Amino acid sequence: MRIVSTGNVRSHEGALRIKKALARELGQRFHIGVRDILLRRYAVTMELDPSPLHDISIPFAVLEVDDGTATMVIEDRDEAFLRNNYVDRMVNRVQEKASMQHYEGKKEYWEQLWRSPEKKPVWDCDPSEEMQEHGWLTLGKTKGKWFYYPPAAAVMRALERLAIDEVVRPLGFSEVVEPMHVSLDTWLTTGHLEGMPQEMYYTCEPATRDTDAWERFVDLVKITHEIPDEELQRNLKNVRAGVCYAQCPNIYAAMAGKTVADSSLPVLLYDRSVPSNRYESGGRHGIERVDEFHRIEILYIGTREQLLEIREKLMERYRHVFNEILDLEWRMARVTPFYLQQAGIHGEASQDQGTIDFEVWLPYRGDRGEEWLEIQNISIVGDKYTEAFNIKGQTAELWSGCSGIGLERWMVAFLAQKGLHPDKWPEGFRQYLPELPDMPEFL
After folding, report:
1. For the chain, which end, N or C, has fewer CB atoms within 10 Å of the first or last residue's CB respectively?
2. Looking at domain 11-103, which CATH architecture does it have?
3. What are the residue numbers of the active site?
4. Which tens digits make up the pLDDT trace of 165-179?
5. Is the pTM of this model over 0.70?
6. Which of 110, 105, 100 is nearest to 349 (CA)?
């Protein structure tokens, strides 16, 4: 059977409809059915606008593009391939990949909303390098991770207390504690596996706890004093989870399928228990760009009006902290939302939804024209995740949003402008850390 479609019903939909009708007719007349549909060859032609700049490939098909017209040929597939909607997704993916080639290298959307007066910095040194020279920091034994000795740890924890006391608790957020690992199914739902699979740290479970199965591995370790990689891989299960990339996916997953009472809105939660891990490859620098970092993730779920009010309150609390307590030179900007960045889309979101970045000038990097570091953000993502995880309101349509406070970035921003010596720190912060603990003495 050959089906040609140029209208609203696509060929694979037509094949499934014909099978259903044929099975009904054959069943009524002859008491027999139609077992399966076998796809021998399926050619899909589509116009790509804009036309791709480079070659495009797609799984399950051979793709050719000629002057903006793409022909996708699929061969030898079964009925499940058609019924599971792979074809439509392949068409969408081809169009998406063609469009993304035109976004590569373009700047993200950025619009300044507010900027503080200029502040005279105490110094212009790189705080990460200075802390290493003082012995406060040392690189961990895995990529992009730091060990914080007491003075550096004290600064980070003081900033954490400050954020909790001055931002989180005054606005009524309640703490949760979540697991460190995130299932791949959760990341599939949030879109992280589509947007940045190359940035994840993945985890494997042992294939078994049976000591006999691990005997050869132990023998090799004891004999060679080396790690037998192949033997280790043989004793591990396939990857089904990863280490936390951001805390919000696990919070959404915990609430999946639930209906929130109107009396509980807005839902105001935060987590500080789990470090985040992101593979930065060659982009690491100091403590501000690392593979493992510590965040306070603030998450809020409620009506559109409630979330807009929360955003304003968060902005006011952050303004209070940065101006009155830390005395920083900083600015706010509306930027491409993180969930669009993950999809490779750059542009302006609506005024209600979107992301606001908080950026601090780093004197050690250079002049104020360019050298700013994003230290946190506030986002409203609309119903993107409440719909994805089927989180409903008793009577209200629910939106959600989040605000991530990166403690390492708060730390480098503060120390880059105010130095390492408490006697030069603003009085507001010295109330949280009047003096630094001593370092151990190493001989």
Report:
1. C
2. 2-Layer Sandwich (3.30)
3. 248, 278, 280, 289, 297, 357, 374, 377, 402, 409
4. 999 999 999 999 999
5. yes
6. 110
